[in-house]
Design brief:
heterotrimer; A: elongated; C: alpha/beta; Rossmann fold; 11 helices; about 45% helix; MetI-like_sf (chain A); cell membrane (chain A); BP-dependent_transpt_permease (chain A); transmembrane helix (chain A)
Chain lengths: ~270, ~300, ~270
């Protein structure tokens, strides 16, 4: 699978973009030219220079540094969200797929409702009640996304459950836990990875949107959506402020989307 | 036919009950004591006595289900109580004041979505892999990866700041609806162009299209009369649900364009911890969702002869 | 005898991601007026593709070479409009799966009348009358009710008769029947075959009858064409070919057929 992926140029490029963005995020302290939160009234809206490669914002903070530090909440919080979503979805999905019967019925009805209800309203409901802040945004995102994974994993479990080698494992008396971890999960994993990659784009957009509205990451932490929100306030005087964070989101989200599409093509050649 | 509609409408009742219960339960997610919050937002020091008084006033010391049914009875009379922030304003008054603006925005956007995505989707399918199709697909790709609030501010900058042809926000000035409506519809246009294109392509491989060609029908007639109608039939559920998505999508757009609708009301209520308003908003969206579902199902049923009961 | 359709050195290639596969390689045959040409072959031998190629119904992934001449018109070179006028009006086709051949969202009469309006240049009212007459001619009971029915409300056999009737009403010079017996259950095969024999006798048309069933083709066709892997392995007058098969494949088809019939007679007694 990895070999096939390496041959796909688009997948390779997007993978490089994503990985290098992550590296830059991890080593933000070393790479960023300035302290992202250091304000300077004398240096407001500075032009591009040696010291500030992308200029400064309305508080005289280095835009490039804020962009680099902004990778952290964007990518890592999104990944954390996805991870929790997948874990929760897997637990529920495996439970439903294995138990069948009433438990399964009940879980799937809840999942159906979750899937059909508009996600934006759900997020607003959770954030609205639990209060503003990135922690609640992540909880809200997990709360609305897990259902997708639960449904997918449930159907995979049911599908693989009847495969010969698993029947064989059962016949020789392997324990349920052993069957799930050794045989089932590796099979389901590839499907989950595709869906998760495609969903990363969605989560990044969702977190940045809520931060833009002021419901997510709070000032003065650097975050791309929040940066755009600040840029919006000075749209008449300094419109260039909104370019860098906007493009950063666009490139990152489209990289994830493209990578997800390529992964799907590699894993599921019949859909090409 | 009539039987189906009655059956379908009967399902609505338990669904509404479920949604109302969820909306009611949500308020328990509040990390603080609601009575205390109600006091704090009005700058009253939450002493023990004041909290007790407020609990009494809000009916918070009654048993749980009792509270739910009390609340439900009031909700059925459209009484959501008063706003925590402006004690002399009713929640229903706040909502009904801002709802028309949101509906106006959502309706205009819906028309844009329909009138743009259907023709483009059809053209893309007919001229599959042509330059036009490729460009549209590229735009769709960018459209789905672009945050719609960024599209919103870029539009403001271009048309309101740079060209000065349209107002930056509000809904008082002439043409104020144009920018928010475009910004709101763009994301959904990408979704529906793709949906219609794929449905058209799928239908074009159907046997009935082949037989229509065999019968010597004109290409245009086959596409417009047969393929398009069948594609819309399969897209109608998604198109219908877009109404809910458009209304909920107004939250972001209304805030960017200072459009005085329920989305903006919802966000400011979240900041002000005005829980009754948030609760009413969620309930309203839930009910809108149920009714859109109902209407879409009935239309779908009506348009598809295969679903009609044997006459 | 006048040749109404002539196919010379027809070749079809399928292009899929720059990989070209040869589907039909260099076949030539002709159809004479008022005769029935049977094309036999196993599935995948290229029978249906040949007919689709003649009518220009293959999509862009297929590359076609050679010539197809219908009444002095070169079909492969003719423009789209010209071919469309020939399709339906001059060369009608009856498809193998009537259940999926009609648009599920329109009643039968809508699909019949649009065909007549398009090909015969008549008014809506005339077309409606003609549709009714078509069903009456096909001996369909309650034709008025049938016209108002949707495809899913009618049986496969009924839809096939609607299809045959529509084709006949257009009075085409050639009728192509593509595996008309596959979608019909065993009991009705005889009925369908009788229908087609009737067409041959009553109407002045030439016919191309495609089937994997040698028995069916033998019953109805005057001339026969045996295809295998996109090539013609045998052609000639039906009775002659059946008695003196030259190619290995024809002999194989005859023997399987014979074995099947023997088995059948053995069981039936």
């Amino acid at each position: 699978m990895i070999k096939k992926l390496m041959r796909d140029k688009i997948a390779l490029i997007t993978l490089i973009i994503i990985l290098s963005t992550m590296l830059i995020g991890i080593f933000a302290e070393e790479i960023a030219p300035n302290d992202p939160n250091k304000t300077s009234i004398t240096q407001k809206y500075a032009q591009r220079s040696q010291e500030f490669p992308l200029g400064t914002d309305h508080l005289g903070r280095c835009i490039l540094s804020r962009l680099i530090y902004g990778i952290r909440p964007t990518i890592f919080l999104s990944m954390f969200t996805m991870l929790c979503t997948i874990i929760l979805g897997t637990i529920v999905g495996v439970t439903a797929g294995y138990t069948r019967g009433i438990v399964d019925e009940a879980i799937m009805r809840i999942v159906d409702v979750m899937l059909s209800f508009p996600s934006q309203v759900m997020i607003l409901a959770v954030v609205g009640m639990m209060g503003v802040g990135i922690r609640n945004v992540i909880i809200a995102s997990i709360a609305i996304k897990w259902a997708w994974y639960a449904r997918m994993i449930r159907s995979s479990v049911i599908k693989y459950n009847d495969r010969n080698y698993i029947l064989y494992s059962k016949a020789i008396g392997a324990s349920k836990g052993f069957i799930i971890t050794r045989h089932m999960l590796p099979n389901i994993l590839s499907e989950v990875i595709v869906l998760a990659t495609l969903d990363m784009g969605w989560v990044i957009l969702s977190i940045s949107t809520l931060s833009f509205l002021g419901l997510g990451v709070q000032a003065p932490t650097a975050e791309w959506g929040a940066m755009l929100s600040e840029a919006k306030n000075v749209i008449t005087s300094h419109p260039k402020q909104m370019l860098a964070p906007g493009f950063a989101i666009l490139i990152l989200v489209s990289s994830f989307n493209m990578l997800g599409d390529s992964l799907r093509d590699v894993l599921d050649p019949k859909e090409v | 036919m009539g039987k189906y509609i009655i059956k379908r409408i009967l399902i609505v009742l338990p669904m509404m009950l479920a949604v109302s219960f969820i909306a009611f339960v949500l308020i328990n997610l509040i990390p603080a004591e609601p009575a205390e919050v109600a006091l704090r937002v009005n700058d009253i020091i939450p002493t023990e006595e004041a909290i007790e008084g407020m609990r009494e006033e809000l009916g918070l010391n009654k048993p749980y289900f009792q509270r739910y049914f009390d609340w439900l009875r009031n909700v059925l009379r459209l009484d959501f109580g008063n706003s925590y922030v402006n004690k002399n304003r009713t929640v229903i008054g706040e909502i009904s004041r801002s709802l028309p603006a949101t509906l106006e925005l959502a309706t205009v956007s819906l028309f844009i979505v329909i009138f743009v995505s259907i023709p483009i989707g059809v053209l893309c399918a007919v001229f599959k892999d042509s330059i036009f199709d490729r460009i549209v697909r590229l735009l769709i790709f960018i459209g789905t990866a672009m945050p719609n609030y960024w599209i919103g501010i870029l539009l403001i900058w271009l048309f309101a700041v740079k060209l000065e042809v349209l107002p930056t926000g509000g809904n008082k000035e002439e043409g104020a609806i144009i920018l928010p409506a475009i910004a709101l519809s763009l994301t959904y246009i990408s979704t529906y162009v793709r949906l219609i294109r794929n449905n058209m392509l799928e239908n074009m491989t159907e046997n009935y299209v082949f037989y229509a060609k065999v019968r010597g029908l004109k290409e245009r007639k086959i596409i417009l009369k047969h393929v398009l109608r069948n594609s819309l039939q399969s897209s109608i559920t998604a198109l219908g649900m877009s109404v809910v998505q458009l209304v909920s999508g107004t939250v972001v757009i209304e805030n960017i364009f200072s459009w005085p609708g329920v989305g903006r009301l919802c966000i400011s209520s979240i900041f002000n911890r005005d829980y009754p308003v948030i609760q009413a908003y969620i309930l309203m969206m839930g009910i809108l969702f149920i009714f859109c579902n109902l209407i879409v199902d009935i239309i779908h049923h009506k348009l598809d002869p295969r679903l009609h009961e044997v006459m | 005898m006048k040749e109404i359709l002539k196919v010379n050195h027809l070749e079809v290639h399928h292009m899929d991601h720059k990989v070209s596969t040869n589907i039909i390689s260099d076949i030539s045959f002709s159809l004479e007026k008022n005769r029935c040409l049977g094309i036999v072959g196993e599935s995948g031998s290229g029978k249906s593709i040949t007919c689709k190629a003649i009518l220009g119904l293959l999509d862009k992934d297929f590359h076609i070479k050679g010539e197809v001449i219908f009444n002095d018109i070169h079909l492969l070179k003719a423009d789209k409009r010209k071919i469309r006028q020939i399709r339906g009006k001059e060369i009608s086709m009856i498809l193998q799966n009537p259940m999926t051949s009609f648009d599920p969202l329109y009643p039968i009469q809508e699909q019949m009348t649009e065909t007549f309006i398009e090909n015969l240049d008549i008014s809506k009212k005339e077309a409606l009358g003609l549709s009714l007459k078509t069903l009456e001619n096909m001996n369909i009971l309650h034709p008025k009710d049938v016209l108002k029915k949707y495809p899913h409300q009618l049986s496969g056999g009924m839809l096939q008769r609607v299809m045959i009737g529509t084709a006949l009403t257009l009075k085409p010079s050639i009728i192509i029947a593509d595996e008309p017996t596959t979608a019909v259950d065993a009991i009705n095969v005889a009925k369908v075959m009788k229908e087609f024999s009737g067409i041959k006798e009553k109407h002045n048309t030439s016919m191309i009858f495609i089937s994997h069933d040698l028995g069916a083709v033998a019953k109805i066709s005057d001339d026969i064409l045996v295809m295998k892997d996109g090539k013609i392995v045998e052609k000639g007058e039906t009775q002659y070919v059946l008695r003196n098969p030259r190619s290995e494949h024809t002999r194989y088809l005859i023997n399987t057929r014979k074995a099947l019939m023997d088995k059948f007679h053995q069981i039936v007694g």
